[in-house]
Amino acid sequence: MPKIRAVQVSRAKAPFEIVEREIPEPGPESVRIKVQACGICHSDTLTRDGTFPLVEYPRVPGHEVVGIVDAVGSGASRWAPGQRVGVGWHGGNCGYCEACRRGDLFACQTFTGITYDGGYAEYMIARAEALALVPDELSSVEAAPLMCAGITTFNCLRNSGAQPGELVAVLGLGGLGHLAVQFAARAGFRTVAIARGKDKEPLARKLGARNYIDSQTQDPAAELRKLGGAKVIQATVTNGDAMAAVVGGLGTNGTLMIIGAAPSLTISPGQLLGGRQSVKGWYSGTSIDSQDTLNFSVLAGVRSMNEVFPLERVDEAYERMLSGKARFRVVLTMGG
Ligand SMILES: NC(=O)c1ccc[n+]([C@@H]2O[C@H](COP(=O)([O-])OP(=O)(O)OC[C@H]3O[C@@H](n4cnc5c(N)ncnc54)[C@H](OP(=O)(O)O)[C@@H]3O)[C@@H](O)[C@H]2O)c1
Ligand SMILES: [Zn+2]
Hints:
Layout: E1 3-9, E2 16-22, E3 30-40, H1 44-49, E4 65-72, E5 84-87, H2 98-101, E6 123-127, E7 131-133, H3 140-143, H4 149-158, E8 167-171, H5 175-186, E9 190-195, H6 201-206, E10 211-214, H7 220-226, E11 230-235, H8 240-244, E12 250-258, H9 269-273, E13 278-281, H10 287-300, E14 306-310, H11 314-323, E15 329-333
Parallel strand pairs: 8-9, 8-11, 9-10, 11-12, 12-13, 14-15
Antiparallel strand pairs: 1-2, 3-4, 3-6, 3-15, 4-5, 5-7
Helix pairs in contact: 4-5, 4-10
Bound molecules: NADP nicotinamide-adenine-dinucleotide phosphate and zinc ion (ZN).
The site of NADP nicotinamide-adenine-dinucleotide phosphate (NAP) has 27 residues, from helix 4 and helix 5.
């Protein structure tokens, strides 16, 4: 049997190990993907550190996967070998558990890189309903970050209630934030980027931000109020204090959309009630949302800015993401 290379975490907080495994066979309603590219998301810390309750070890992380279908299990014949597909965080739904029957597809709790092995590997198995077809206009490296960073910010924006022309702020310019700025700008919102330091300003403006707020030298809430107040703030940062510092910049009926998995957040009720403001969480979406994200990105020219590393340099690649220095997404490629 041919062997494949995969990066696994054998227990919480253990280092990555590059291991050889048997090539996996697709079960019913599943396909095997020859992985070409896999983005490194900050949420991969959930697998690496064991901070997501469902994670079991050993586990291969990675939920921004793009590759070629190379074997199809029974009942998955709508997919065919040779098709280029993407898989995101939502790994599919069984269709018959209580959550699925209520239409809450995420609660089925099939998560790529958490409850089954993900894309830090040369091959992976994915459920048929978890796949999106990748348009020819996008390379695999370009498409991979759209499977989590892209879908999350695009789907959050289009479900936020903001209307074109209104002020949408993006807090944090990392993997998610730099795509959020592009989606908001290309979809016709007055887009404001908020990040730490001056050095990201030129890139933020290039990505479509009309205004840039340096949260280290300016008060982001006061600056947003000067601009009229935000209809929506998409908070992509990992830090609760940074989120709390922008709440005062919401306009009347404005919403803080929380995407970043900060450990805690303190907001005073008085800050919200006077302006009828809301705080709402958002998770990525399902495979049809990924499909929409890929298609919109082609239509509007949204592209992730990537730093590319081969699979064997996974440690360096992951540290680069954690350091906050990556501009802006780190993507692993598998070669061959
Ligand atoms: N809801 C979902 O479905 C979903 C999906 C994917 C990811 N996530 C979560 O979204 C967050 C961002 O993910 P990512 O992959 O974009 O991460 P990333 O590329 O590592 O970017 C991290 C961001 O957090 C900010 N940040 C880090 N430390 C900070 C601090 N001490 N104070 C203020 N800001 C700080 C950085 O802000 P600056 O730009 O100012 O440096 C940067 O924008 C993570 O928590 C991740 O788990 C959620
Ligand atoms: Zn992610």
